[in-house]
Specification:
By secondary structure, the chain is α/β, with parallel strands linked by helices. It has one domain. Helices cover about 45% and strands about 10% of the residues. Strands 2-1-3-4-5 form a five-stranded mixed sheet, with helices on both faces. The longest helix has 16 residues.
Length: about 300
């Protein structure tokens, strides 16, 4: 991972206090592949968790990264989660942060800065923030992540990734799942991609697309913006990659249980089947489905 610093809130240098108003018993931390669709979907799930039967004490936090951070391969998604865990497990500044912050800024200075005790117009504060900006370090968000923990000491860590056989090999996917299992991270996969999970909210897929399900597995790139699957979602829900809150409330929030039933009854939720095998061209595509319902079960039962 080197000295890359990918964790970054939407606005650097602003404190994140909203989630700290409550003291959650458990937090599910998710690193997701898409920097728009998945991130926005799960942020709205967090906002409306009580309407979804998720206990008030259970929170979801989708790890944030810069808008122009398009590193979305499974390895990159796992890397972001582990960058967070480095911060979480280091009571002080992680060593790789110390290595890029000039010695003139003492630990005491940094701690007082993070507590909001410095005036933003102070020259030294401005110079310090310029250093952070140059190095791409959102120290305020990293401090928030270091402090933000559930009271029950049983927080959960997971990744949300696409199968997408066009980009990800069977071996690549199996290696990622193996790494997650060895470290007790949860792994949520959708075949062919997350938009197939979104489509499960919108229509009865087996009924509407009877005889055309192979089109989802192949998932041809139709334009620079859309695959076959994402195009179908866009036609019905009338949004691009970005999901507005209004669209979430209209198309997704009321239909999450409908989507869960479809996933369980009509498609596979088995990770091995979602990934597929190297034995033939067809098997390399995996089987249609998703195990995202397991995430909602976890959230509701916690």
């Amino acid at each position: 991972m080197g000295n890359s610093f990918r964790l970054r809130a939407n606005t650097m240098f602003n404190r994140i206090d909203e989630e700290q108003k409550e003291e959650p018993l458990k937090i599910v931390f998710l690193s997701v592949e898409g920097n728009k669709t998945e991130k926005q979907y799960f942020q709205y799930v967090e906002k409306y968790r009580e309407k979804l039967g998720i206990k008030r004490e259970v929170h979801i936090h989708t790890l944030q990264r810069a808008k122009n951070d398009n590193l979305s391969a499974p390895e990159n998604v796992l890397e972001l989660l582990e960058e967070y865990l480095d911060i979480r497990n280091d009571c002080n500044l992680p060593q790789r942060l110390k290595a890029v912050i000039p010695e003139e800024y003492s630990v005491e200075f940094i701690e007082s800065y993070l507590k909001g005790e410095h005036k933003r117009r102070d020259i030294k504060t401005k110079e310090f923030e310029a250093v952070l900006q140059e190095a791409g370090i959102d120290l305020t968000y990293q401090y928030f992540l270091n402090e933000y923990k559930g009271n029950g000491n049983d927080d959960i860590f997971g990744i949300v990734i696409d199968r997408d056989y066009h980009s990800h090999s069977v071996k690549q996917m199996k290696d990622i799942v193996s790494q997650c299992c060895s470290k007790s991270y949860n792994c949520y996969i959708t075949t062919p991609l997350f938009e197939f999970w979104l489509l499960m909210h919108l229509v009865d897929i087996k009924e509407i697309y009877a005889g055309e399900l192979d089109k989802f597995i192949v998932n041809e790139n139709l334009t620079d913006k859309h695959t076959f699957t994402s195009k179908e979602v866009s036609k019905i829900a009338k949004h691009s990659k970005a999901i507005s809150e209004q669209k979430f409330l209209e198309y997704y929030l009321p239909k999450i249980d409908f989507a869960i039933r479809q996933a369980k009854e009509n498609f596979t939720m088995d990770l091995d089947e979602l990934i597929g095998e190297d034995s033939s061209a067809d098997s390399k595509m995996g089987k249609l489905g998703t195990n995202i319902p397991e995430l909602f079960e976890l959230l509701r039962e916690a």
